Inverse folding.
């Protein structure tokens, strides 16, 4: 059984790195290139301004999502505070899915949401100790007597 250990650790590492990059890279552009307020205006307030959602909520969500993606993506990339990072990214996926379904009730979210969701669920489902190549694991080994 021990022979499978390193394979699992590498699999978790690759899943974590791909998921982290998917969120972090896009968030870099949204936060530092486009800007959070322009992101909110272009992707939340503009398209959903006529929806029953209050405009203030669209501004808050639209400006907040890029930061949630940046922080969550960075945490997942590093393997630091893994659970909060994954929950943050899962919350972003729920928010994005809700918004898309408000605009288009039969939204095809297989290209954007599903690959990310599968990786989030996978990483939340595997035992924490499988993630051997993470900052969390390194810190726990340093604390252990």
């Amino acid at each position: 059984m021990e022979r499978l250990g390193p394979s699992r650790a590498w699999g978790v590492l690759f899943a974590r790195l791909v998921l982290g990059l998917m969120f972090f890279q896009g968030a870099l552009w949204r936060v530092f290139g486009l800007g959070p307020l322009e992101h909110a205006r272009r992707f939340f307030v503009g398209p959903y301004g006529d929806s029953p959602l209050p405009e203030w909520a669209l501004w808050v969500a639209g400006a907040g999502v890029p930061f949630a993606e940046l922080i969550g993506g960075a945490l997942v990339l590093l393997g630091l505070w893994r659970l909060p990072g994954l929950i943050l990214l899962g919350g972003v996926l729920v928010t994005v899915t809700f918004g898309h379904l408000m605009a288009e009730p039969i939204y095809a979210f297989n290209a954007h949401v599903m690959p990310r969701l599968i990786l989030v669920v996978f990483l939340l489902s595997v035992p924490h100790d499988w993630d051997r190549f993470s900052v969390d694991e390194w810190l726990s080994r340093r604390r252990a007597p």
User: Anything to note?
Assistant: The helical segments are 4-34, 36-48, 55-78, 82-103, 113-125, 135-143. Residues 4-143 form one domain. The CA atoms of residues 90 and 121 lie 8 Å apart.
